[in-house]
């Protein structure tokens, strides 16, 4: 008989949620027919506030440029020594496949330059569009990483004590 423990039960016994997931998976693999109805809904770990939330995922660098004064500069970008000094923040409505002059300075390969592009998205841009998100019926925002990092995606954070300075209103003052 399959029995899935609740996360609370697992933690109470000194286990980890990861172990709980492995146990459930192993149990399902032993069965000839998966029967998810045997796992009562009361055993999931979704917080109450999230059960009916409508999420909108935001990639901050590409959501909205609400403050051109905090736009990233060349020195903030990874592989700065391989990035032309002519780099400029991209116009928001440009054709994605149209390459800027500084990109041509890097050569003919679109993918050599596209990861160095910055569009200047920031938290002010998110604040500016909260009404838009609310009108869509969004009740929760899931942010891609916001911590300081040289990449555009910020998954390579270098400081988890500090938000990326180019997302805030004062890059010079906020530089870690
Ligand atoms: Ca900006």
SSE arrangement:
Blueprint: H1 7-12, H2 17-30, E1 55-58, H3 101-104, H4 110-113, H5 123-128, H6 130-136, E2 140-143, E3 147-148, E4 159-163, H7 171-174
Write a compact overview of the structure shown.
Helices cover 26% and strands 9% of the residues. The protein is an alpha+beta fold. It is elongated and about 60 Å long.
Please tell me about this protein's structure.
The protein is an alpha+beta fold. The protein folds into two domains: 7-45, no CATH class; 55-174, Glycosidases (TIM Barrel). The chain is built from seven helices and four strands, in the order ααβααααβββα. It has helices at 7-12, 17-30, 101-104, 110-113, 123-128, 130-136, 171-174, and strands at 55-58, 140-143, 147-148, 159-163. Strands 1-2 form a two-stranded parallel sheet. Strands 3-4 form a two-stranded antiparallel sheet. The longest helix is centred in the N-terminal third of the chain and has 14 residues, at 17-30. The chain is elongated, with a radius of gyration of 22 Å. Mean pLDDT is 81; it is low at 1-31. The chain binds calcium ion (CA). Calcium ion binds at residues 65, 67-68, 70-71, 120, 122.
Task: Tell me what the CATH architecture of the largest domain is.
Answer: Alpha-Beta Barrel
Bound molecules: calcium ion
Strand order of the largest sheet: 1-2
Task: Supply Rg.
Answer: 22 Å
Q: How would you sum up the major sheet?
A: 2 strands, parallel
Number of structural domains = 2
| Computed structural class | alpha+beta
Proportion in helices: 25-40%
Question: For the record, what CATH class of the largest domain applies?
Answer: Alpha Beta
Relevant CATH superfamily of the largest domain = Glycosidases
> How many helix segments?
7
Q: Predict the CATH topology of the largest domain.
A: TIM Barrel
What is the ordering of alpha helices and beta strands? HHEHHHHEEEH
Tell me the span between the first and last alpha carbons: 55 Å
- Beta strand %: 5-15%
pLDDT < 50 runs, ≥5 residues: 1-31
